[in-house]
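Hi everyone,

Forwarding the result from last night's run.
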Amino acid sequence: MTPPPQIGTNATPLSAVILCRNEAANLPRCLAALRGCAETVVVDDRSEDGSREIAAAAGARVVEHPFVSFADQRNWALDHAELRCEWTLHLDADEVLTPEALTEIGRLLPALPPDRVGFIARKILLDGRWLRHSADYPVYVARLVHRRGPRFVMAGHGETIPAAPASAVYLRAPMLHYSFSKGWAEWEERHRRYAAAEAARLARGGVALNPRDLFAKDPVSRRRARRALSLRMPGRPALRFFYAYVLRLGFLDGRPGFRFCRAMARYEAFISAELRRAREASSP
């Protein structure tokens, strides 16, 4: 497969990797924001909606690999996609890097050691509105990693990189997350899968809680500990709604904020239902 030409001498020396399966609705927006990167690679899992053609037409290189998990897909790209740049940026197709974030990454790269991991906060949008309060902004995700650096691991339904606080770099500029871009039915179907993965992890006893991390300076450690604590509390759906809509001032996000808080409460209910099923199946 012939790689696309270098975009130019002013391109940020960065291989952008996008995970894809039937993302024709999201890819154009995601790809357009990466034109300043030296290389864009789409890792496709048997798309049937023209996603590969859209990516190729935008100048991206398309490679195919069956999806097992988010961590597996990103690690496969690091190890086997023949990425041309030392530093890699990992996105989902419904995420959009802001120009400010790309500029910040370009400033950071020359002095960034290979063992560092870049974390970027996502601004979740619903009905064209940024959910500043109800979506608990800023929530940081691992997205910038060196090809010889640490690898992704699964944590619940999503992936992370267990970087120590000393090795983590938190970008000031955010990216945008169009989590509801395929409609509510797709969002619910996806979160039912996430709930099954979360419940399976809980049933195995795989959510450790270090009380000291509840007050850690590192935001990723602090959020992980608070999530682990919440999973031990009864009435999670109602508590999730109260936390996001009242304590986090989600009501200031208007109707989109209310809809989001209600949806996340339903997600907690999905987890509880899956956990009951798992326990019933394992009981004699």
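The first helix runs from residue 27 to 32.

Cheers,
N.
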